[in-house]
Amino acid sequence: MQTNDFARVITLIRKEKGISQKQAAADLGVSQALLSHYEKGVRECGLDFVLRVADYYDVSCDYLLGRSADRLGTTIKVDEIPDADGSEDKVLRGSVLPTLNKKLISNSLNIIFDILAECDNKTLVTEMSGYIMAVIYKAFRYIYSANSGNTAAMFKLNEEIFPELIAADMFVRETKIKACLDKARIEGIPVAEKAKELKLSPEKISKNWPLFSGSLLNLIKTVENARETK
Fold first, then answer.
1. How many helices (H) and strands (E) in the chain?
2. Superfamily of domain 4-64
3. Which has the closest alpha carbon to 142: 129, 126, 155, 124?
4. Do residues 205 and 213 touch, judged by C-beta distance below 8 A?
5. Domain boundary assignment for the chain
6. Cα dihedral angle (87, 90, 94, 99), rounded to 10 degrees?
7. How many CB atoms sit inside 10 A of residue 186's CB?
8. pLDDT in tens, 155-168
9. Do residues 195 and 185 touch, judged by C-beta distance below 8 A?
10. Rounded to whole angstroms, how far apart are CA atoms 200 and 115?
11. Chain Cα centroid distance, residue 178
């Protein structure tokens, strides 16, 4: 009785709470070796163990099994998700899906830029912002080009080659972002001045951004589930 998410989630929660594997095993009534197998996904557990883990960590079984991004198993509803921009619109041109996705994305960006602001690292902010802007630029150009009546004169980049040019720009920016963060990890600079802002976990995210954390956690789940089905 186990999903691919179960091993990852029980390991994440245990480490997040600072509980040793030995202690967790004792509290859950299993050997450390068996718990290690569960956490590595080597062996499958029974339903009774899932229930014990849910009670032990005070989370829902749906969360443990990857069925919900919310620890209590609450189902997210579009009209319950706050808007980062303060908008009160419940629907977007009559469709619920665009409204839901808009909220997930905008709320998640709110968290990302809050973290970037706290890190106060110019390189990281510049490259991350440029990377996100490039994604939005490409998305808009694809939509814009869907109607042959829309003039290409709105853009300077050639319509035939812009996807490759923007993809190249995104690759360069991503490389700079990784280099910046690697440097911080290896040398303790330049992000290290406020490195604590980069120490994240689902628990910390939920605590620091109670309004928007559900959006980010559901966005992560949506993206990863989409990759698994392809």
1. 10, 0
2. lambda repressor-like DNA-binding domains (1.10.260.40)
3. 155
4. yes
5. 4-64, 79-228
6. 70
7. 8
8. 999 988 999 999 99
9. no
10. 10
11. 17
Full DSSP string of 122-148: HHHHHHHHHHHHHHHHHHHHHHHTTST
- Kindly give the interhelix angle for 47-57 and 21-28, rounded to the nearest 10 degrees: 120
Q: What is the pLDDT of residues 192-217, one digit of tens each?
A: 455 566 778 888 888 899 889 888 98
Neighbours of 197 (CB within 10 A): 17
Matching residue, tokens 């009546």: 149
CA angle 63, 101, 156 (to 5 degrees): 140
- Write down the pLDDT at residue 1: 45
Q: What torsion do the CA atoms of 77, 82, 83, 84 make, to the nearest 10 degrees?
A: -130
Which has more confidence, 97 or 229?
A: 97
Three-class DSSP category at 95: strand
Question: Helices 96-119 and 122-144, interaxial angle, to 10°?
Answer: 160
CA 159, CA 108: separation in Å to the nearest integer?
30
Tell me if 177 sits within 8 A of 124, measured CB to CB. Answer: yes
Residue 160, both tokens: 């035939």
